Structure formats: structure tokens, C-alpha cells
């Protein structure tokens, strides 16, 4: 467990080389970028819509831009960053495929993590007739910012359909690695993605 309280930060940091250019989409209070700046000496920028979180980023010395990710990343040129990260936020966007392709246009690699809707306790909640509420899906159905509910198997299939290369996939439950049937036994998935043909993804 890191001092930031997010076990996935350590795993993401393993994929980042010192001094890289990193863009964090839906960066929240900037904790991940702050961590990577301290641990890896990156040149980082965040994107966040919430004005209070933008203010927190600025207060914490994190470079941040305020705009809506649903509008895409047109302001960034191809290959502007080494890594583009979207940590535990992919389920909150409506235009999932265009945003993934934009991430791989402006970055050499993309890193995404999301709560796995196929996690066993979530299935049990659905079987009992209720929408699941858990540590990584903490909202009630009526006040949730999440607009997409998908599983590890769903995301694997999407990457195959869209010609997105899965370069590494990790799965976790209670902060520990899950190796056996992650679609059933993992609550969070973390992916390192690349362009299958080595060229920027067309939107």
C-alpha cells in the first residue's frame, strides 16, 4: 500500500520510465501525477473537469487542464506523451472507443484501470435483484457517475475488435494479484495498451 492509499499506483509506476511525459485523464486531485513526479521525475499533465479538484491539483503543484473528456483530445498532437493514463475513470465516459483511440493517438502507450463488473460479489448482488455497491463501485444506482458497466472479458473483446494491443493485464482483489479466472475473482483490472500496428489510432 502506498502512502497515497492506492495500491495500483505502484504497479502503474513500474510501466513508467524516469523523465517520461505523462498525461492523466480524469486526474482527480492529482495524486497519481504527484506520486509519479516524486517517484519517477516525470513531466506530467492532468485533465479534470471538476473545478474543486482542479484547484486541489494546482495547490499540490500538479499541472492541470480543465475540460470535458467527452470532447476528445483534439488539443494534443500525435505522440505528445509517452503514456496516457485513465485510472478508475473509464467507466464514467460515454464515448469509450473514441477516447481509447485518442489516448493511443497522443500517447505511445495507454494505461487504463476500471472496476470489474463481473466480480463475484457483483454477480451475487445482481442475482439477488440489486445493483452492486462495493469499494470500487461505491455509488447507489441513482447517484452514480458511472455510465458504463463492463467486465474484464468485455474489455478484452473490445480491444480485439478495435485492434488495440493488450501488452499487459493485471487483476486484483483486496489489493492482491488475481491469477485464477480474473473475470470472476478480480474487483479491479489494470491494462497497458498499445497500437497493434505501431501507428497512431484513427478516430
Over all CA atoms, what is the radius of gyration?
16 Å
**CATH H-level superfamily:** Vaccinia Virus protein VP39
Q: Provide the residue-averaged pLDDT.
A: 91
The low-pLDDT segments are none
CATH architecture tag? 3-Layer(aba) Sandwich
* Number of DSSP E strands: 8
Q: Note the run of SSEs as H and E.
A: HEHEHEEHEHHEEHE
In which order are the strands of the major sheet placed?
3-2-1-4-5-8-6-7
- CATH top level label: Alpha Beta
> What about the largest sheet?
8 strands, mixed
Q: Specify the structural class.
A: alpha/beta
Helicity level? 25-40%
How would you portray this structure in words?
The chain has helices at 7-14, 31-40, 51-59, 96-106, 120-127, 152-161, 182-185, and strands spanning 21-25, 43-47, 64-65, 81-87, 107-115, 164-173, 176-177, 188-195. The protein has an 8-stranded mixed β-sheet with strand order 3-2-1-4-5-8-6-7, sandwiched between helices. The protein is globular, with a radius of gyration of 16 Å. It contains 7 helices and 8 strands, in the order αβαβαββαβααββαβ. A hairpin with a 2-residue loop joins strand 6 (164-173) and strand 7. It has 203 residues and is α/β, with parallel strands linked by helices. The protein has a single domain (7-117, 148-195), classed as Rossmann fold. The model has no long low-confidence stretch (mean pLDDT 91).
